[in-house]
């Protein structure tokens, strides 16, 4: 299964999530690509859209390789494969670097309102795909502490390994495609261009762009 772009993927997810229409779900996008998708889904389900801010922790010398993640409250999760060989000092330094980025994003994305409260609400967490699942797991852990009524993951595509990782932390997982051969999320999109901060802000304020 391939998707033309994030907007088409979001439309398909909204169809799969149609049962939540009328329940005023809180639809939270993981920046950046997940936010433009969350806008579409929230509109279709007559819900509210916001951003959930988590950031992966990069490995020493290999920042693109995730060793864990941090949420905007400073809670850190370390991936099993990284435990035992990453020093606590490095983790703390990397945590502070990524927290600074999360604060920048919050100030840029929702400067007035602050984060929406998921307590007691159906909360749907959206991303454009899962490779390792580390960022999604951190988002779910952060949100679970805020006691949502139901915590739902919605993604167009995922590796089998990542999907297994997130299932244990969500009440429901909606994933449209779990391919046998998975290299990267972008291989399942015709258009997987990078989403800008400006597009995220526009999505949160009411518009969307692919």
Give a concise summary.
This protein folds into two domains: 6-52 and 113-205, Rossmann fold; 55-109, 2-Layer Sandwich (Ybab, Chain: A). The longest helix has 22 residues, at 88-109. A hairpin with a 4-residue loop joins strand 4 (62-71) and strand 5 (76-78).
SSE inventory with pairings:
Elements: H1 6-16, E1 26-29, H2 33-45, E2 48-51, E3 54-59, E4 62-71, E5 76-78, H3 88-109, E6 122-126, H4 134-144, E7 150-157, H5 160-167, E8 172-177, H6 197-205
Parallel strand pairs: 1-2, 1-6, 6-7, 7-8
Antiparallel strand pairs: 3-4, 4-5
Describe the protein.
35% of the residues lie in helices and 22% in strands. With 210 residues, it is α/β, with parallel strands linked by helices. The protein folds into two domains: 6-52 and 113-205, Rossmann fold (3-Layer(aba) Sandwich), CATH 3.40.50.2020; 55-109, Ybab, Chain: A, CATH 3.30.1310. A five-stranded parallel β-sheet has the order 2-1-6-7-8, sandwiched between helices. A three-stranded antiparallel β-sheet has the order 3-4-5. Helix 2 (33-45) packs parallel to helix 6 (197-205). The longest helix has 22 residues, at 88-109. The mean pLDDT is 92.
